[in-house]
Protein: Nickel import system ATP-binding protein NikD
Amino acid sequence: MEPILEISHLSITFIQYERGIHKRELPVIKDLSLQIEPGQIVAAVGASGSGKSLLAHSILGILPYNSRMSGTLKYDGRPLTQERAEALRGREIMLIPQGVTYLDPLMKIGPQIRKGKRDAGIRERCRAALKRYELKEEIEEQYPFEISGGMARRVLIASAVTESPRLIIADEPTPGLDKKAAGRILGHFRELAEEGAGILFITHDLELALTVADRVAVFYAGETIEEADASDFKDVEKLRHPFTKSLWHAMPEHGFHPIPGSQPYPGTMAKGCPFARQCRKCTILCREADQISLKPYRGGLVRCLYPGKEEAK
Ligand SMILES: Nc1ncnc2c1ncn2[C@@H]1O[C@H](COP(=O)(O)OP(=O)(O)OP(=O)(O)O)[C@@H](O)[C@H]1O
Ligand code: NI
Structure:
């Protein structure tokens, strides 16, 4: 099937001026490629600071002014230009933002959900969306400061699904919600996918991602280091990258064995594989490599010189 969204070799850098004079480029996303087909839920899983929200913002065309982007984004087979992103967002492409601060504090909830639309069916669709997330109709007349954080989060989600979107970018949609509420939202994502929407589910929580995703893209320090079918996570031997394997071992159901160390910060990276410092299989070649590309391997994609190499015991 034709992908609804196709991201190829996306890189995002921030331009910073040190003491106002020296220009410095801070790479945060490097060579990121990802595809989403209609009907598919793709989870982008990565630690804090690995570039997940920036990925979301690049698709919506809302990157900060001091950033530069390279690579290509295609939506529905055609380049997703800034103009197209502006025309499609809020209509076909919906963002469920990470922060509830995206709600306009000076506007009542109802009009925010309806987004200025006045057609005959909009009130009905708005009510149905609120009901689905167990929000009372009265909330339409309230301002964001009058509702709780959990309610605000559900308002953001209701607002994104009111008009059947074709692509949903959900940036950490469930924090602050209990397991049941989170499960209901993810179940709704599945229904929307069955109706033909493509969904990018951004989260730091691999366990949660695996409850709903078809494909999982694992982020590490701004790069996708592996793309796998969700079913590959049933057996650690099916996974390809040593970081993905370490995430598997860190899951509570697999004994909760996290690896020591943390991801390098953007801008502090020397050459070589960014995972080298934490990798038990790292060789001199891994430290010296200029750029390791994402390659097909056993039905998935992996960015490693020695994918699937046996763990040294
Ligand atoms: N406007 C900016 N200027 C400079 N650096 C930025 C800017 N916005 C984000 N960054 C940096 O880019 C990196 C990626 O940020 P991003 O918000 O995409 O991470 P994330 O994976 O969404 O993290 P989290 O899980 O905490 O939401 C971070 O190191 C962040 O500090
Ligand atoms: Ni984020």
